Input
Amino acid sequence: MFKKYDFVLGAVWLVVLFLIPFPFIVTFLDGLPSTYHSQRLPFVIGIFAYVWMLLAIYTSTKPKWLDRLIGLPHLYMVHGCLSLLALVLAFLHKENSPSAGWIKTTGDWAFDIFLGLTIYSMVFMAGWLTSRIPLLERIKKTLERVFKHEISIILHRLNLLATLLVFIHIQLIDYVMAIKPFMALIWLATVFVFASYLWSKFKENSKGVTAQLIHHQELAPNIWESVIQLPKRPKLKLRAGDFVFISFPQIKGMGEPHPFSLVNAPSGDGQIKLAIRGDGDFTRQLQTIQAPESISVAGGYGMYQTIIDDFSAKQLLIIGGGIGIVPLLSVIDGNPDLETILYYSVHQNSPMIYSNQIEQWQSERNNFHARLQEGRFEDETIVNTLPKDRSKLVVLIGGPARMGRHWKALMLREGLSQEQIYYEEFSW
Output
C-alpha cells in the first residue's frame, strides 16, 4: 500500500525546507549586483534563515489544515527544527557578512534574542528533547517553579520582535532594497505571516468557543474529570481520539490554552469529557475550579482517527500506559465496529482510570478484548496476540514517551509498516 502519511510528512518537510525559500533565492541572485557576487553564499544563508523563521512563526499558529495532514506533534517538531536551523544559519550569515551601523545593530539584536529564546525553549518548550535527556528534564522541573507556562509563552513571543528586527535589517541594505522582485516577496511573506499570527490571537473566539464546565470532580488521586457542555453548533470539528485546547480567560493565570485529550467520542449531546492529571501549574489550579464555570474550548486536533480511516483498518491493537490511555478510550468509544484488543498498564500502586467502562465494553462487545495490569507488559505477551493477517491492523499507542517509543520500535521489528503504527507523543 502507498504510504500516504509518510509521503505527506516528507512532502511538508520538502516544501518548508526548500520549495518555499526557492523563489526568494532565485529573485535575489538574479538581481544581485556583480560587485557583491563574492558574498552570495552568506546572503543565501541569511535568506534561508529568515524564510525559515517566518515559517516557524506561521506553524506556531497551529493551522488546522496542517494538523489534519501530519498531526500537531509533528507540526510542533517542524516548528522547533525550523527555529533551530534558522538560528544556526543566522550565525553563519552574521559571521561571514561584515556590516556596520544600524545594519549590524539590528542584525545583532535579532540574533541575541533568537539565541536566548532558543536556549530557553530547549529546556521549557521542547519536550521531545527533554524527554530524551534526563538532566534537561530535571532542570526543567526545577525551574518550572519560577518560570510558569504563561511566562514561557510570553517570552516565546519575543521571536516576533526578533523577526521584525531582521525585516528592518533587510530594509537598511540599499542594494538589496533595489532588487524589487525579491523585496516584493519579502514584504508579502512577512505581512502574511504576521497577519496570520495576529489573526490567530485576536480574531473572534481566538481561544475557542465559549462553553460551560458543568461537572468537575476527582476521578483518582491527582486526576480530575471535567465534563464540558459545548454550545449548539460550536463550529468545532471533533473526532474520536482528538484533543482540545482549553483555557479560562476570566481566571488569572489560566488564560493560555492547554491541550487535553477527549475521554469520550464526540456525540450529538455536545458534551465532551476530559481526564486531567495535575502535573503543572495550570492543571493544579484547574483542580480548584468549581463547576459550573465558563471555559474556552478550541479544536479538535489529532491524528488517531485519521490513521484508522486512511488505512481502512478492520483491527485495532491499542497499547495504553497511565494517563496516556485517555485518547485511546475515545478511539474505542468511537469505533465500536472494529475488532479491538486493548493492553492498559499503570505503575505499581497507580490509579487505573475508567476500568469500569472498559469492563462494560468487554461485556457488551464480542469484538473487544482488554487486559489491564500494574507494571509493563512483557514484549512476548503483546507480540503473541498479533494476528497472522496484519494487512488491516492498526496499532495505536498512548502513554509516556519512553513507553511509546519502545512499543513503536517493537512493532516495526515485527514487520508492521510505519503507516500501521501511530503514537501521538505529548512532548511539547
In short: Residues 6 and 332 are 25 Å apart (CA to CA). The two ends are 31 Å apart (CA to CA). The first strand starts at residue 209 and ends at 220. The chain has a mean pLDDT of 90.
